[in-house]
Amino acid sequence: SYVLTQPPSVSVAPGKTARITCGGNNIGTKGVHWYQQRPGQAPVLLVYDDSDRPSGIPERFSGSKSGNMATLTISRVEAEDEADYYCQVWDGSSDHYVFGTGTKVTVL
Amino acid sequence: EVQLVQSGVEVKKPGESLKISCKGSGYYFTGSWIGWVRQMPGEGLEWMGIIYPGDSETRYSPSFQGQVTISADKSINTAYLQWSSLKASDTAIYYCARKAGYTHGWYYFDHWGQGTLVTVSS
Fold first, then answer.
1. Which candidate from A1, A86, A90 shows the least CB-CB separation from B107?
2. Do A90 and B101 touch (CB under 8 A)?
3. What is the pLDDT of residues B62-120, one digit of tens each?
4. pLDDT tens, position by position, B59-71
5. Cβ partners under 8 Å of residue A105, min gap 6
6. CB B35 to CB A97 under 8 A?
7. DSSP reduced 3-state for A107
8. CB B45 to CB A86 under 8 A?
9. Angle, vertex CA A103, rays to CA A100 and CA A104, nearest 5
10. What is the DSSP code (8-state) at residue B5?
């Protein structure tokens, strides 16, 4: 089955930039989506189709992809960005929805 | 406004049955797939399965096939997740979410329910 690998944790100081990676085989051929899950809350769609943002999501959140890696970048990090972040793809060969292992972002 | 509202907290004993619900509003419920996602305590998100309320076509993750049943009643805009015999390992938060991404065929979940906490303990 398809696997998406993320770093377990990322630490960042307020005002700095956090980058969260998401690796998967042939991820370049799939659309990558990102979710934010704050403690005790449901996931929220942050980025879809590699780099698009739903309305209401700050421009500080951006997505990109290169080779076998997708990246979520959080610019000008704020305390409220402390949360778990998950990448996700749809694997067309199996018609399965795959989530990454998740990354906990800690704001120092 | 799109909303998915899930049923409340459940506390059950091993071996008991359970059916939790997810009611959609603010969009054409019948024409949008609804997925279910499990989050075990302290763990990540796992896709369980998905249903098309229009005709109840259902797909399951191999990890959950035969373990749960997903259904829907389009007349009341509600999707369900049910167990016939719960185990302690079913303790988790369960989320429903609306499938999106039809433009490119790169599917994702754009709106999520608030989650239903299910605790199974003797």
1. A90
2. yes
3. 999 999 999 999 999 999 999 999 999 999 999 999 999 888 889 999 999 999 999 99
4. 999 999 999 999 9
5. A9, A10, A11, A12, A18, A20, A74, A77, A81, A82, A83, A84, A85
6. yes
7. strand
8. yes
9. 150
10. E
